[in-house]
Design goal:
3-stranded antiparallel beta sheet; ATP binding; 9 helices; binds adenosine-5'-triphosphate; single chain; 229 residues; alpha/beta; 35% helix; 11 strands; ATP-binding
Length: 229
């Protein structure tokens, strides 16, 4: 992303933001409430149109492209608050996650890979999604996104509303997705303590611009992090 500006109506939230996402990494995006993190993810995924600047993916400009085109090109987005179909079964949710996969023959292997990663989803395949616990719904949301074999997975606060032990479990799953499938991950997260250990790099966003980009290790120093917030 280069010089990215975005917002709502006349209100600008991102002010010329520059940021790289490298193949194979887990990039953690931190920042205060209202800094523009969700706006950034939504603009990347095509839910918001950039007002200025560029978003390039594998050398091609994708700014302003539709979410459907992004999904077909291997970019998946798990929105804040799970984003599952609450009244449908776990299995149907996963099958719908593969809507962009043109090759139906790949469905069984993808389903098996997701079940191996999250065995609870296999055990509960016939359960109605909305009756699963918060953590299980988050795993289902990630599982849905994996059903079309994305190369890039964008996650908006996957820990929200989860008890600390579940946050740890979800973070480990995200690391496993990255290691096992080689998926590049861009994650916004408020839980700094549990997300920093899995990050390859970190970015701190302040009022719509990047104020830190690099090694996550210095950010484990609470004082240093607070200076950036
Ligand atoms: N649909 C909208 N219409 C108008 N303003 C919005 C809309 N969504 C977000 N905003 C504003 O844009 C700014 C950035 O919001 P955004 O959700 O991107 O922040 P964030 O960094 O993700 O915050 P948080 O950590 O609290 O989720 C805020 O001032 C917010 O009020």
């Amino acid at each position: 992303m280069q010089g990215l500006a975005a917002g709502y109506g006349k209100k600008r939230v991102l002010h010329g933001l520059d940021m790289d996402l490298n193949q194979g990494e887990i990039l953690l995006v931190l920042g205060h409430n209202g800094a523009g993190k969700t706006t950034l993810l939504q603009t990347m995924f095509g839910l918001l149109r950039p007002m200025a600047g560029s978003i390039a993916f594998e050398g091609r400009e994708i700014g302003g492209r539709t979410p459907a085109a992004n999904v077909r090109d291997g970019i998946a987005f798990v929105p804040q608050g799970h984003g599952i179909f609450r009244s449908l079964t776990v299995r149907t949710n996963l099958e719908l996650g593969a809507f962009a996969e043109r090759d139906a023959a790949r469905m069984p292997e993808r389903l098996e890979a997701v079940f191996e990663l999250f065995p609870i989803l296999k055990e509960r395949a016939q359960q109605i999604g909305g009756t699963m616990s918060g953590g299980q719904q988050q795993m289902l949301a990630i599982g849905m996104a994996l059903m079309h074999g994305p190369r890039v997975l964008i996650l908006d606060e996957p820990s929200i509303g989860l008890a600390p032990n579940l946050v740890e479990r979800v973070m480990q799953s995200i690391r496993t997705v990255n290691e096992r499938f080689g998926t590049t991950i861009l994650m916004v997260e408020q839980n700094v303590k549990l997300s920093l250990p899995i990050a390859s790099r970190a970015v701190v966003v302040k009022t719509g611009a990047v104020v830190y980009e690099g090694d996550p290790a210095p950010l484990t120093d609470h004082v240093r992090l607070m200076q950036l917030f």
